[in-house]
Design brief:
The complex is a heterodimer of chains A (749) and B (69). With 749 residues, chain A is of the alpha+beta class. Chain A has three domains: 17-25 and 457-594, Aldehyde oxidase/xanthine dehydrogenase, molybdopterin binding domain (Aldehyde Oxidoreductase, domain 4); 34-136 and 209-258 and 264-296, Aldehyde oxidase/xanthine dehydrogenase, a/b hammerhead (Aldehyde Oxidoreductase, domain 3), CATH 3.90.1170; 303-455 and 600-748, Aldehyde oxidase/xanthine dehydrogenase, molybdopterin binding domain (Aldehyde Oxidoreductase, domain 4), CATH 3.30.365. In chain A, helix 11 runs parallel beside helix 20 (713-725) and helix 15 packs parallel to helix 16. With 69 residues, chain B is α+β, with helices and mostly antiparallel strands. Chain B has one domain. In chain B, 28% of the residues are buried. At the A-B interface, helix 10 of A face strand 4 and strand 5 of B.
Chain lengths: 749, 69
């Protein structure tokens, strides 16, 4: 492929732009179908309780109520281990999180659901369901849940340690360890050692659109689903699994999505709506309230992390140790594995030990949130790195450059890095005008940090049909998040040699496109784009054959370049040839199904300038720059958008956002008024700088960019606060009271 | 790090089992790679799992399977 691209790197208007800004785009709550019923869910008021009895008679008797369901309405098939995209788990856990059976494990845990003629009747009926609970003691943090005398959430949960089942009943689902070199010797060789503990609160992805689903269990036996999801095929497979149906019996149509960030990969509503639809014979819609989103979906784990790092006097890191205990919520599956793989990923350290613990607690079952597990870990590591740089008297970026991971660096979890852009991102930070700009005024400080995310490959499918007017229809299965329709269409356009506007992308339902994994893991522009390239190449191959037929020559003699086909003095544009497909053999449809192997990870760094109000502890962001390796920025505006969005979420995570829990396990701030996410009024423009270190595993060098940018902001801000106020904070969020308490403590000392 | 014989990941696991009894059970479930485990050959995660062919000097790592958010 030529490095001089015609389409890639430009900024065409996104194909869904007009519909999105005029309100015509169809989201799940917009969907209408004849006979639609609305449903409401009854949720547990207790963080931990046994369900003794559920009496639905009063709900049934309310006029307008059409059906009531509980966990008893699930097929009563034997429990088994299933894999639904995020690792193996007992089917009982997945069903149990959708509708509680036996116990409720968090406040907000769904217990029953009602379908009625409208949502108000449904909500009233839900309130009439009488549930008798036996309240149990709860645990809310990983350290508390790991104590030997902690109340157990699951009687059947036994700890797996270093890959072996111990048989030990515990709230610790798994303990893993990564070992590299000799960490004791490494620390013995160190001239300086810093060991610190860190705590991070539970935070939510904060997508603006609540979960919603409409399901029709049709009279022909097919279950039709319209839903807001990052993965239509995950919904299909999960619904089929939970209802003991073959996947062919379920069709999922992904509606437009108002944010997901990982939180719309798990399934919450679709099986419930399906059960209600089966009972009523009518389509049923459920839309969560904001409170339900906070209390009944999957936030990201709170965590307790201990990091110890040792360096020689010349600045070389010689040893590192991490203890990561992540809250999984009600069911195992905290993203501590990725956290353990990312915690020291930016550095070449020969002696490392990492212990990770997946711990259940009485909070909502956690889900992925944009580089899941990595932000928690980077807050710890990058704070300690900053402290070590100060001890050494080294520039923070120079210190990181001296120890930066490169191609061939061995990670603590085993593999060596392929081509990566860690050094390039650090050098871009150092060279950026922000890094050297004067920062004047009292109580102001600048901090930096770097982070990493592996990115995913996984499966994607695509077909491209050629229209007689020279345009093409591209059918793919990736929910559009952040403009992926367009970034995928641009890649096809580049291969075909036609304008991006001539590619009409369409996100299809699960009956209409081949299997496609989630829009998540920073995989979509990479993997579905890869599929689009392959499908476009298939189109080019077929078009060459058509041209050859017209010119009565061999297909091997036909060349295609920049949308023009040539052979022996003959030439036809893509559009001219497309107009003649009917006479040369009929439609041309290109297809591809990929599962790319060489995924390129992405490094991201940031520079944060803050001012700390010495009276209130409020931290104001004065200037923020995000720098990230995109491999190849297909649509730079959308890459910049990802960098800005991840930065803003990282800033919110750093300064304000938390599940504020009562002692009895209730979230006290389950509204957007009190769960304080940054708005445009809180922040300056987030400046961006795209680094391009091509990924050899993609036709255009693409690396996913959706996630790594959320990883460094909390640490960068913590480091900036230190320079502004002289205090190092080890808890997230670094809210005003926490800052003031640190300042007061420092003044007393 | 251990050295084993094999031309595919499946054969590698069989060899590992001979050297360290119990490894197969950690990595496999009913003869298939556990879904929470990925295989990296020379640093690159393979989509072919047990079927992936390996070279005589290949490094094979069994790592957490991760996607993202």
């Amino acid at each position: 492929m030529s490095e001089q691209y015609k389409i890639l790197g430009t900024r065409p208007i996104r194909h869904d732009g007009v519909d999105k800004v005029t309100g015509r785009a169809l989201y799940g709550a917009d969907f209408q179908i004849a006979g639609l019923l609305e449903a409401a869910i009854l949720r547990s008021p207790h963080a931990h309780a046994r369900i003794l009895k559920i009496d639905t008679r009063k709900a049934h008797a309310l006029p307008g109520v059409k059906a009531v369901v509980t966990a008893a309405d699930f097929p009563q098939s034997p429990d088994r281990i299933v894999d639904l995209g995020e690792g193996e788990t007992p089917l009982s856990y997945i069903r149990g999180n959708v509708l509680a059976s036996g116990k409720t494990l968090y406040k907000g845990h769904a217990v029953a659901a009602v379908a009625a003629v409208n949502v108000h009747v449904a909500q009233e009926a839900a309130s009439l369901i009488e549930v008798e609970y036996e309240e149990l003691p709860c645990v809310l943090t990983a350290p508390d849940a790991m104590r030997p005398d902690a109340p157990l959430l699951h009687a059947d949960l036994k700890t797996t340690e270093f890959g072996e089942q111990t048989g030990r009943a515990s709230n610790v689902a798994e303990h893993f360890r990564h070992l590299l070199g000799d960490v004791e010797k490494g620390f013995a060789d160190a001239d300086h050692v810093v060991e610190r503990e860190f705590h991070t609160a539970t935070v939510h992805q904060g997508y603006i659109e609540p979960h919603n689903a409409t399901v029709l269990w049709n009279q022909d036996g097919r279950v039709l689903v319209w839903t807001s999801t990052q993965g239509a095929f995950v919904v299909r497979d999960t619904v089929a699994c939970m209802l003991d149906l073959p996947v062919s019996q379920v069709r999922v149509t992904p509606m437009e999505i108002g944010g997901g960030f990982g939180g719309k990969i798990p399934v919450y509503l679709e099986p419930v709506a399906a059960l209600l639809s089966k009972k009523t014979g009518r389509p049923v819609r459920i839309v969560m309230t904001r409170q339900e989103v906070f209390e009944g979906t999957g936030p990201t784990p709170g965590s307790f992390i201990r990091v110890k790092m040792g360096v020689r006097g010349d600045g070389r890191m010689v040893a590192a140790q991490a203890h990561l205990a992540y809250e999984a919520g009600a069911y195992p599956g905290a993203m501590v594995g990725p956290g353990g793989m990312c915690v020291f990923a930016a550095y070449d350290i020969g002696n490392v030990v990492i212990d990770g613990f997946d711990v259940v607690v009485n909070k909502p079952s956690t889900a992925a949130y944009r580089a899941p597990g990595a932000t928690n870990a980077a807050f710890a590591t990058e704070s300690v790195v900053d402290e070590l740089a100060e001890i050494l008297g080294m520039d923070p970026i120079e210190f990181r450059l001296k120890n930066a991971a490169r191609e061939g660096t061995r990670r603590a979890d085993g593999p060596k890095f392929p081509r990566i852009g860690c050094v390039e991102v650090l050098e871009a930070i150092k060279a950026h005008p922000h890094y050297s700009a004067p920062l004047e005024g009292p109580h102001r400080g600048r901090g930096v940090a770097i982070g990493f995310w592996f990115n995913a490959g996984l499966q994607s499918s695509c077909t491209i049909s050629v229209n007689a007017d020279g345009s093409v229809v591209l059918v793919e299965g990736s929910t559009d998040i952040g403009g992926t329709r367009t970034s995928i269409a641009m890649q096809a356009a580049e291969v075909l040699g036609i304008p991006a506007e001539k590619v009409q992308p369409s996100v299809a339902d699960t009956d209409s496109v081949g299997y496609t994994a989630v829009t998540g893991g920073s995989r979509t522009t990479f993997a579905t784009g890869f599929a689009a390239c392959e499908a476009a190449n298939d189109v080019i191959r077929q078009m060459k054959e058509r041209a050859a037929r017209l010119w009565q020559t061999g297909a091997g003699s036909v060349e295609a370049d920049a949308g023009v086909f040539r052979s022996n003095g003959n030439s036809l544009s893509f559009a001219e040839l497309a107009a003649r497909l009917g006479e040369t053999g009929g439609p041309v449809i290109g297809r591809a199904a990929v599962h790319p192997r060489a995924v390129g990870g992405s490094f991201s760094g940031c520079i944060a300038d803050v001012e700390v109000d010495q009276e209130t502890g409020k931290v104001s962001i004065l200037r923020f720059t995000s720098i990230q390796d995109a491999g190849k920025a297909i649509h730079p505006s959308y890459v910049e958008g990802q960098m800005q969005g991840g930065s803003v979420q990282g800033i919110g995570w750093a300064l304000n956002e938390e599940y504020y829990m009562s002692d009895r396990g209730a979230m006290m701030n389950s509204s957007l008024l009190d769960y304080r996410m940054p708005t445009s009024l809180d922040l300056p423009m987030i400046d961006t700088h795209i680094v391009e270190v091509p990924n050899p595993g993609h036709p255009f060098g693409v690396r996913g960019v959706g996630e790594a940018n959320i990883v460094p902001p909390p640490a960068a801000i913590a480091n900036a606060i230190y320079r502004a106020a002289g205090v190092r904070l080890n808890r997230l969020p670094m809210k005003p009271m926490a800052v003031m308490q640190a300042i007061w403590s420092a003044r007393k000392a | 790090m251990v050295e084993v014989e094999g031309t595919t990941v499946r054969e590698i696991i069989d060899s590992l089992e001979k050297q360290h009894s119990g490894m197969a059970e950690r990595l496999l479930d009913q003869g298939r790679l556990r879904p929470n485990i990925s295989v990296a050959i020379d640093g690159v995660v393979t989509p072919f799992g047990l079927l992936e062919e390996v070279e005589p000097q290949s490094e094979i790592h069994f790592v957490h399977a991760i996607a993202g958010g």
